Amino acid sequence: MTQQTAAREQGPETLGFQTEVRQLLQLMIHSLYSNKEIFLRELISNASDAADKLRFEALASPDLLADDPELGIRIEIDKDAGTIAVTDNGIGMSRDELVENLGTIARSGTAEFLERMTGDEKQDASLIGQFGVGFYSAFIVADRVTVDSRRAGVDAADGVRWSSDGQGEFTIEPAELEARGTRVTLHLKADEKEFADAFRVESLVRKYSDHISFPVTLADTGGEEPEPRVVNSATALWTRPRGDVSDDEYREFYKHLSHDFADPLSWSHNRVEGKREYTSLLYIPKNPPFDLWNREAPRGLKLYVQRVFIMDDAEQFLPLYLRFVKGVVDSSDLPLNVSRELLQQDPDLTAIRSALTRRVLDMLKKLDDDDYQAFWAQFGNVVKEGLVEDHANRERIAKLLRFATTEDSSETQPHSLEDYVARAAEGQDSIYYLLADSHATAIASPHLERLRDKGIEVLLLTDPIDPWVVDHLQEFDGKAFVDVARDDLSLPEGGEEMTREAREEEHKSLLEKIRQVLADRVESVKVSQRLVDSPACVVSAADELSPQVRRMLEASGQQVPASKPILEVNVEHPLVSRLSAAADDERFSALSNIVLDHALLAEGSQLENPADYVRRMNALLLEIDAAGDSKDE
Ligand code: ADP
Ligand code: MG
Predict the structure, then answer these.
(1) Residue 419, SS3?
(2) Were both Cys, which of 33, 300, 424, 482 would link to 428 (CB 3.0–4.6 Å)?
(3) Inside any domain, residue 458
(4) Beta-bridge partners for 486
(5) In what order do the strands lie in the sheet with 536-539?
(6) Do residue 532 and residue 483 come from a single domain?
(7) Does residue 611 belong to any structural domain of this protein?
(8) How much distance in Å is there from the Cα of 347 to the middle of ligand 2?
(9) Is there a single domain that holds both residue 174 and residue 98?
């Protein structure tokens, strides 16, 4: 007895969906209800992928196509039975592939993604759209789905039938299948019978799947339509001249490629002739995929060679920092048997890659203001990686950067460096920036006081990657980046009564006294030129790590050499005057420590000994209270 007949005698085997699939099914059925028609796009998209894969495998093994070489997709509807079936003669699936592909979600990060779902239909619909729901969307309209599949190259007896009501389990059993490929049959829910209507289905195919490069045939079994007929244009969209493709067609093609629900922000479709001939169609999405920050997530373009699909996620065509770009490259002269390894070694690929990179940077540059702000809010931090990764395009990338600044305190409309430079006063040869852990900390920072007074704009950098951004840039448009929380800050002259040196001299003994009291906690104590309203602030020496970078490194578990900040005091501040008038040493010490504590807190540091601070502060508050009480008497 062969294994096959043994299995047949066993009958159907029942298996459970992976937990994530169960959750996804539940969420999807509820949140995508108003978008239910997309199931057809998803099934046709899978059928087209399957045909693509077979065409690719047949390059090496032509036998796989056997006596059925015309690849295509067929939709059959049956109103009486209440079914719609999507059939392809593509690659097909073995038993194990069915279990794996239609019973689990292999993508890493799925569990965390599902946790982000809120139950709020609208919000979840857009999240789920970014995830890409694929095959499982069939259960939005069907209460039972059957998948019959026979892998290319295996016998009719080795077919498999998968079946489920989408409630948590599926069955799998051997099936005798005449034809190669996959047939997905949806038993429509009682109130979804509209999807067994020829007119409705035809309009959906035209709307969502016209660009599919294989013919999609519609057959109305037992209906009024006598003859099956092809209902899409069946030419690969990117092979058509730009002028013949409508915006809607470009948008639908994007959704097919990306599984995104939202329209793309922009696209660029080009045919390049020359040493290497290729067509590219690149899209900038509006929403990031759920796994944008997962370094192992699939990325890159779909590669075709002379319209034959070669591979998904061909990451060699774009650098990592442009991983959000979706699209297609169709090369006329790469060999059909090209592999990832061969691509890596291909000397001409570098040229294609840099041309595509330039094209994307150009698309970004051309986005209008609103679209660009929307793009930046989602992908800005990814683009910043380009400064490190793509040295050749550093200047182009620098122009794409956006930062919050003191020009206005809104975080949502960040500014370009070009705008900053255009607003800078004549003679200002630096671009000033402040590092902070949050926007709120930044705008309240004492380090900005004098700069504000002088009307100098400061970039407010609050992303963890920002310190590296300014480090790599060094300068923009001939102006050096200058950290306003550094000891060596020198501001454009004007309005000061005395030089720093003169002031230091004048307050020498006070500074020395504070330094002695705080010797364990600070490197040195200096007169500040940058304060107006605050009594003190902390700054770091020019060659030290900034406190933000220090905290970040520490948080990631790295050993960072200890260092003490420099305390700067505002000698005009009443609190500092009070300090110099302090009669006894204990009080002087308490006040000095509090001044330092406050400077550290304002900068975003944690106090090493908060209990000490609280004790000193309480003592001080009691004194104030006692003073108030005695006044009342
Ligand atoms: P995706 O298409 O994004 O991978 P789907 O949920 O649509 O996700 O499909 C899951 C997997 O099931 C596919 O990657 C593919 O391997 C397999 N699959 C689905 N439909 C077919 C089909 N018609 N022919 C062959 N394989 C299919
Ligand atoms: Mg799919």
Answers:
(1) helix
(2) 424
(3) yes
(4) 540
(5) 524-527, 566-569, 536-539
(6) no
(7) yes
(8) 33
(9) yes
